[in-house]
Specification:
Helices cover 41% and strands 28% of the residues. By secondary structure, the chain is of the alpha+beta class. It folds into 2 domains: 2-155 and 331-339, 3-Layer(aba) Sandwich (Aminopeptidase); 163-308, Aminopeptidase, CATH 3.40.630.30. α3 packs antiparallel against α9 and α4 packs across α5.
């Protein structure tokens, strides 16, 4: 096998056709590994990072891609030179791309990173699906090469299997659940006339982006720097992603209004029978009227009626998602530490010190709880 490193963005842009043709021949074919996704991501978040995509060939044929980048970052408060997947918290999942011999692709990647790339401290591979082969292959390769590593828990994202029609699904939900949905809808209607719009092309509805960002500014997430409109990079990413996805037929933006005023939105991508939820936010001033919950119930019903096979609700295992589905897609982060004293210290810090500190805090809380109980008696 041979490995070619692509670090120039213009050279990366020319990879779109071979990249996507390769992806479509893999079991990991998802919108989040499409070349277009990475292009939009890099245009928004690539500043102060260095592109380092690895192309793996066998007998001249492209069989694998490792979408990597280099950055200076912080790890448990300590400065590090980090290599990792091209991702950030807006990336639901990541993986290697391999049409065949995935073990060879990953092994060549680790060898190249170790032997050919600039000195680094940690290789961080976030949000790898636990049900893929990647985690096991990484562990096997790290042990073979004597590379210290840790496997850490990551997102646990609920998803809804669409295996029946809406009436059958809804009929099997509890009476308490149905009552709650009716209550939320009736309460929200007291705010004003409720309308829900689904937008599939931003170029034809540019105002929808202004509405989304306005809701983001009034969302509780804005106060903690996590809203869709909390920084310029987010606005660039979701605007460019929306325009691209609209042209591809992947976009599905849901916007709820009350008497014409935007209250809540959800930002979805549709790809090969799956619907992926990327963002959902609502105006905090209307939190007591549950606009997000009402919009979600409308969306779920529409997805059932749209011929999809799965609704990936994305994000973490939020309480409201548990009402819709018991199914969870687990992911993990694999952190590989380079050889040397400083990476060894980081490995000790993450693998030994932090867990011990957590256990110690847990024991202190338990002792305080038991002491308080005795006093009450």
């Amino acid at each position: 096998m041979t490995v070619e490193r692509v670090s120039d963005f213009d050279a990366f842009l020319h990879l779109e056709d071979p990249w996507n043709r390769l992806l479509e021949r893999t079991p990991t074919d998802t919108v989040f590994l499409r070349h277009e996704w990475f292009r939009c991501w890099w245009e928004a978040y690539g500043r102060d990072r260095s592109l380092s995509v690895l192309l793996i060939r066998e007998k001249g044929a492209l069989i694998g891609i490792s979408p990597l980048m280099i950055s200076r970052a912080s790890f448990r408060g300590f400065p590090v030179r980090r290599i990792g997947f091209i991702e950030n918290p807006e990336t639901p999942r990541s993986d290697f791309i391999a049409s065949r011999n995935p073990e060879g692709v990953i092994d060549e990647t680790i060898a190249f990173v170790t032997e050919q790339m600039t000195p680094w401290h940690i290789l961080v591979l976030n949000n790898i699906p636990v049900d893929s082969d990647t985690r096991g292959l990484l562990e096997t390769i790290c042990r073979k090469r004597g590379m210290p590593y840790l496997v850490l828990p990551a997102l646990r994202s609920p998803y809804l299997r669409i295996e029946t029609d809406w009436d059958s699904f809804y009929g099997k939900t509890t009476q308490r659940f149905k009552k709650r949905l009716r209550y939320n809808k009736n309460r929200l209607e007291k705010v004003g006339h409720i309308s829900v719009e689904n937008v599939g092309r931003i170029n034809e509805h540019e105002s929808v982006l202004r509405d989304l960002y306005a809701i983001g500014q009034r969302s509780w997430k804005n106060g903690i720097g996590r809203s869709i409109s909390c920084n310029t990079e987010n606005r660039v990413f979701f605007s460019e992603l929306g325009r691209m996805a609209g042209e591809k037929g992947w976009l599905s933006l849901w916007l709820m209004k009350a008497d014409g005023k935007p209250l809540a939105f959800e930002y979805h991508l549709q790809y090969k029978g799956r619907v992926h939820a990327l963002r959902s936010e609502f105006d905090e001033a209307y939190a007591a009227h549950s606009p997000g919950a009402v919009l979600e119930s409308h969306i779920v019903r529409t997805i059932f009626e749209g011929g999809f096979r799965e609704y990936d609700m994305g994000g973490s295992q939020d309480e409201y998602k548990k009402h819709w589905t018991p199914f969870i897609r687990e992911q993990c982060n694999v952190v590989i530490f380079n050889r040397g004293m400083y990476p060894g210290f980081l490995r000790f810090l993450e693998g030994r010190f932090i867990p011990a500190a957590r256990r110690s805090r847990g024991m202190i809380r338990l002792k305080e709880f038991m002491s308080a109980r005795k006093k009450r008696r």
